[in-house]
């Protein structure tokens, strides 16, 4: 079982990384895309917002399908759609076309985000879920380390379209991996209705579960700070601090390493502390880091290295918060884990889409909009966590 468990985690981690990889590989190409389409970099960032919107809507669709038809069939269909849309991205002839096709790319790729969480809930006991999510982050975190570097070299050598052709290859590879190597973790439930009223009622029941909504919101708000960084970091580092594509890829890799390291440290801390305790302590720490990050920007005191250092500390906190909020959000559900995972992801991506849209609309050529949004996220999450006892029913 040890070997099977290892390969299962690898496959689930690779599937989970499809969304991150679809973003990380092309961010360094923002200046090239903007130049080709004669638009600003801030306008290009709307392609991230449309991607998040597609993931948000797509998760609400694929969640019930995962519960009704099992995990494999929706995965195969979603990966096929992702691959077709990736071809469309590579062939885009305008920024409007790219923004639209990115929406459909996310619509298909979102199943790679939802299904692994549901499969983890299917196969592992409750007390191991947070640890398994941390292990998935280990695989997921490889994407931000290698993807920007790969993307930058492809863009320099073959143009920004080559990044999306790479995503076509990735989509085909994942499609074949699921087809040949991923077993079904939970057969479909024919008794589950896909009627819109029934699906809506089920989502409402999940949404109104006190434990679910508390930790889903908490995790979503904190994650939106990371999504804001994804959308705004190209402007901050490449325009304000004049780093090139390769240097930007290295910076992105450093932040990913911070995320990976903290997520693995989380598995050790979980041996002695509960998920709830970890969330409480880390949110306070991240709030301090966020305020410091914004304060230096507002005062104009940031250097390139201080900006990188503050962001590393901020992003590192996510490795503790995300696995534990995800585990506590899904803990109350078993039969409809797919729908619960989808709703949790949809909430997270809707906040992410809003944060990235803010980056696009508030961009003023300085680091202040980005750092202000990042700093506000743990503050809001800490407030949500602080009133959890008024929401959560029962023991956690």
UniProtKB/TrEMBL annotation:
Instruction: Give the protein's recorded name.
Output: Bcr/CflA family efflux MFS transporter
**Family statement drawn from the similarity comment of this UniProt entry:** Belongs to the major facilitator superfamily. Bcr/CmlA family.
Q: Does the keyword Iron-sulfur apply?
A: no
What are the Major facilitator superfamily (MFS) profile domain coordinates in residue numbering?
8-393
Q: Which Gene3D superfamilies match?
A: Multidrug resistance protein D (1.20.1720.10)
User: Keywords assigned by UniProt?
Assistant: Cell membrane, Membrane, Transmembrane, Transmembrane helix, Transport
- Coiled-coil spans are none
Q: Report a single Gene Ontology molecular function.
A: xenobiotic transmembrane transporter activity
Transmembrane region(s): 46-66, 73-93, 99-120, 132-156, 162-182, 212-230, 250-270, 277-298, 304-321, 342-362, 368-387
NCBIfam families membership: efflux_Bcr_CflA
For membrane topology, the record states: Multi-pass membrane protein
Q: Which PANTHER family match?
A: MAJOR FACILITATOR SUPERFAMILY, POLYAMINE TRANSPORTER 2-RELATED
Pfam families hit by this protein: MFS_1
| One Gene Ontology CC term in the entry | plasma membrane
Keyword Secreted appears in the UniProt entry = no
Example GO BP: xenobiotic detoxification by transmembrane export across the plasma membrane
Where does this polypeptide localize?
Cell membrane
């Amino acid at each position: 079982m040890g070997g099977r468990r290892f390969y299962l985690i690898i496959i689930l981690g690779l599937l989970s990384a499809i969304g991150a990889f679809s973003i990380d590989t092309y961010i360094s190409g923002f200046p090239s895309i903007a130049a080709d389409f004669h638009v600003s970099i801030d306008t290009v960032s709307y392609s991230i917002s449309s991607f998040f919107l597609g993931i948000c809507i797509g998760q609400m669709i694929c969640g019930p399908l995962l519960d009704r038809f099992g995990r494999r069939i929706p995965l195969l269909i979603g990966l096929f759609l992702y691959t077709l849309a990736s071809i469309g991205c590579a062939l885009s002839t305008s920024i409007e076309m790219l923004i639209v096709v990115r929406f459909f790319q996310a619509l298909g790729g979102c199943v790679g985000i939802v299904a692994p969480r549901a499969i983890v809930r299917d196969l592992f006991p409750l007390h191991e879920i947070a640890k398994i999510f941390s292990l998935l982050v280990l695989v997921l975190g490889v994407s931000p380390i290698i993807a920007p570097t790969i993307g930058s070299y492809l863009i320099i050598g073959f143009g920004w379209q080559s990044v999306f052709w790479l995503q076509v290859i990735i989509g085909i590879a994942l499609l074949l991996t699921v087809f040949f190597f991923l077993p079904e973790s939970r057969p479909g439930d024919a008794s589950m209705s896909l009627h819109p009223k029934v699906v809506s009622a089920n989502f409402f029941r999940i949404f109104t579960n006190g434990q679910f909504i508390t930790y889903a919101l908490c995790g979503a708000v904190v994650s939106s700070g990371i999504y804001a960084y994804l959308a705004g970091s190209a402007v901050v580092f490449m325009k304000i601090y004049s780093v090139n594509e390769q240097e930007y890829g290295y910076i992105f890799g450093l932040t990913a390493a911070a995320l990976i390291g903290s997520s693995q440290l989380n598995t050790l801390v979980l041996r002695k502390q509960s998920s709830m305790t970890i969330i409480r302590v880390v949110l306070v720490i991240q709030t301090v880091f966020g305020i410091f990050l914004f304060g230096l920007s507002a005062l104009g005191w940031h250097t390139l290295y201080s900006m990188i250092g503050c962001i590393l500390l901020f992003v590192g906190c996510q490795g503790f918060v995300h696995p534990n909020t995800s585990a506590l959000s899904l803990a109350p559900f078993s039969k409809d884990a797919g729908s619960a995972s989808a709703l949790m992801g949809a909430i997270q991506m809707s906040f992410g889409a809003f944060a990235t849209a803010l980056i696009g609309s508030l961009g003023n050529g300085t680091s202040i909009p980005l750092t202000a949004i990042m700093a506000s996220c743990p503050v809001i999450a800490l407030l949500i966590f602080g009133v959890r006892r008024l929401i959560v029913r029962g023991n956690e």
